[in-house]
Structure formats: C-alpha cells, structure tokens
Amino acid sequence: MANEARAVDLAIGIDFGGSGIKGAIVDTRTGQFLGDRIRIPTPQPSVTREVMLVMTDLVRRLIDAQTGGPTPVLSLAEAAILPVGVGIPAATRNGTVLTAANIDASWIGFPAEAELALAVGRTVAIGNDADVAGLAEMRFGAGRGQRGTVMVLTIGTGMGTGVFIDGRLFPNTELGHLELHGRDAEERVAESARDRYNLSWRDWASAFDDYLHLLERLFWPDLFILGGGGSKRADNYMQYLTVRTPVVVATQKNNAGIIGASLIAHERRSRVSIAMAGEPFS
Ligand code: BGC
Question: How far is CA 265 from CA 23, 79, 237, in A?
C-alpha cells in the first residue's frame, strides 16, 4: 500500500445529510482521508430505496478510486475488508432507524444496518449523525481530552445533539426537539430556519442563544461545541451568545460526520473480529 495507513485502520465513513450524501475512506488513527471525498446529492424525496442505492454507489466509487489505475493505493484484498459506517439524521438503535424528522418517513423502522450490509457485502454500523460527528470532534477536534459533560451541537438542516460524559457518548439525545418558544426548537434554531424565515444573524442568534440557555439550565454542561454547516459562519454570531458555559467551534467542520462514521465502522469490525476469535462481546 502506497500510503502509510494500514488497511486494518481504514474504514469508509458516510454522512447522510439533508442535501448531500458524502463519503470518504478514512484512516481512523488520524482522521485523515485516503483520497478524495465524494458527494452525491441526496435524492428528493429521500426514500430508503433511493438513498441505499446512492450509498452503495458511493462505496463502489470510493473503492474503485483506490484500487484502480496504474498504481493502485489499495490491493483488492485490502479493500475487501473495509467496513462502512453511516451517520443518519435520526435516532437509531440496534441498526434500525427510529425517527424521520428531516428525511422521508420510509426510514422509520427501516433496518438500515442489515440492508446496507447485504447491499455492499461488508460490515456496516449506523449511528445518529450528530452522535458520530461528536465522536470525531471528541477524538480529533475541539473535544479532545475534555472531561465532564460536553454537548456537540450540529447546526444544519436539523439541529443535532451529541452528548458526552467524560468522553463517553450518551446516544440519541435528540435535544434539537426540545420545546423552545412553544415550538420544536430546530424549527427556529437549525441553519435551515435562518433561510426559511430570512433571519438576520442577530435574530437567528438571539433564538439560538435562548436555546443554549435552555440546554444550560437543564444539563449544566462544561462545554458546548458548535458543528455542522452553521458553525462555518460562527464569526457572524458568536458575539451574540451570552451563556456562561464556554462555547467553541468544531474544528472538523463538514468532515466530522464522515470521520465519526468511519470510527463506528472500525469499532464494529474490531468487535466482530474479537467475537470471532472467541472472546465474549462486551
Ligand atoms: C433529527 C436528529 C438529527 C438532527 C441533525 C434532527 O431533526 O431528529 O436525529 O441528529 O436532525 O441532522
């Protein structure tokens, strides 16, 4: 392999977003990509069948890019063992999608992990998109080494939350759906809300600040990390935030979802290998 990464450390990460489905092969020790990331527009409506086809195509293209050409980076044998992780904008449990706030309702109850594993013939792990983006941020970004309660907020089509306690994830918190001003909070504080209501940064930030105060009153976190597309322009609104809790901007930005998804894939494959070697699952 031309790259220093060992095949056993590589995993494919896929981020299923409202407008794009993005993927890359990731070196899970460093969070670096092997080759380019690929983005395919999210089918509209985002029905399970169409999205699964896009993900399958994405995996094939990522593998082809590293195994083809005159000087392949990966051998076919190395490529064959790469597991796939997917961050899904919904609550997920045991490989099944449970909710669908910003995606087609066909996802509710869909056993995405098993279906995608069949389609791509690989180990697959799924998780909530904000949870996996948070994992990447805790491992490689602004949350590195942070103890206590850390809340990673992904500001995008929806409002995602990843909560970490002494570095361990508390999954599926779905705090973007807390009630704020009598409504589902994400209707007012997701990035999409700014466009929908044509809000100035100041007006959007005023609602977002109320949302942070709500989280502060309920959880008393030690740190807020702002991620997702809406964190790219944090310079426009950081000055309007008045919470006592420190607020920092994610460092992995748009790639956190892909990197975090690769981390859960890698973890899943390690667990499968341990189980196959006769060790009990923890
Ligand atoms: C969903 C969450 C997701 C968030 C960000 C919300 O609408 O309910 O599961 O993490 O959007 O995509």
Answer: 13, 14, 35
Token reading at 17: 């977003």
Residue that has been written with the tokens 């089509």 in this structure: 157
Which residues make Cβ contacts (< 8 Å) with residue 38, sequence separation at least 6?
22, 23, 24, 58, 61, 62, 65
As a whole number of angstroms, the distance between CA 37 and CA 264 comes to 18
Any atom of ligand 1 within 6 Å of the Cβ of 97: no
Please determine, for residue 80, whether its predicted confidence score (pLDDT) is greater than 50.
Answer: yes
CATH of 4-131+256-276 given 3.30.2290.10, 3.30.420.40, 3.20.20.70, 3.40.50.1100: 3.30.420.40
Percent of the chain surpassing pLDDT 70:
95
Name residue, tokens 């309920």. Answer: 218
What's the CATH architecture for 142-250?
2-Layer Sandwich (3.30)
State whether residue 39 is helix, strand or coil: strand
130 CB less than 6 Å from ligand 1?
A: yes
Distance in Å, CA 129 to ligand 1 centroid: 7
Nearest partner of 257 among 12, 4, 51, 40, judged by Cα: 12
Q: What pLDDT, on the 0 to 100 scale, is given for residue 282?
A: 44
Distance from the CA of 90 to the center of ligand 1, in angstroms? Answer: 5
Is the C-beta atom of 172 inside 6 A of ligand 1? no
- Listing DSSP states for 199-214 in one string gives --HHHHHHHHHHHHHH
